[in-house]
Each structure stands twice: as C-alpha cells, then as structure tokens.
Amino acid sequence: MADDADRRRAALERGARAEAHVAALLEAEGWRVLARNWRGAGGELDVVVSRGGALRFVEVKLRDAEDPLGLDAIGPAKRARLSRAARAFLADHPAPVEEAAFLVVLLELEPGRPLQDARITWIDDAFDAG
Prior knowledge:
By secondary structure, the chain is an alpha+beta fold. It has a single domain (about 1-125), classed as Trna Endonuclease, Chain: A, domain 1, CATH 3.40.1350.10. It is about 35% helix and about 35% strand. The protein contains 2 helices and 5 strands; from the N terminus they run αβββαββ. The chain has helices at about 1-30, 75-90, and strands at about 30-40, 45-50, 55-65, 100-110, 120-125. The chain has a 5-stranded mixed sheet with strand order 1-2-3-4-5. The radius of gyration is 15 Å and the shape is globular. The mean pLDDT is about 90.
C-alpha cells in the first residue's frame, strides 16, 4: 500500500514540475499566468494564461517517451470536465476576452533525462468546449 502512495506522490510531484516548466516557457513567450491548478465546476485547469485579448486553458501531459498516449489521454470525459472548469473560470473572472481556447502541451521524456530535455508538442485550439 505504501508503494502505491509513494508512486502516486511521485507522479503528482512530477506533474507539478512539468506544469511549472510549461508555465515558465509560456511566460518567456509573453503570456501572463493567471492561475495554476485552478479548480471549479468539478474540474481542474493546470495553467491559465493570457496575452493581449487571448486566453488559454493549458492542459499539461507528461509522458515517458515509450508511452504511446498523447492527446488520446484526454478523452471525452476529461474534455467535458475541462470545458466545465473553463466556463466556471470565465464566470469567476469576467474580463474582456477576444478569444479563448484549450492548449494541450505534451511533454515526452526519455527515462533518466531532465525535464528540460523533454520533447514538447504544443497543440493550440486542441478541442472544442462543446
């Protein structure tokens, strides 16, 4: 049982580092981080950023290089939770927005390599809020 808890804790820490890495990369590109791990309406938004009138709800997925799942890891149920959370975020933060979209960031990491060496795939406007 302790092994499961340790693995879960390690996965959460690894995910938090990946989210922080992506947030820093976006800030370097001129995006402003509005929220991290924002929860609402039964969902969680990893990172929310804005630049100009654009808003992005960022979903970060860190996978080992040999793990074949990418965008497939965000199935219909996950997309529905993200969409509900995004609508709740917009309701709680009524600022003018010209465009809003989901940005999925896939990080593929070779075992034993640092996060900075991850291969990154950016998928802007990855899916509709439905």
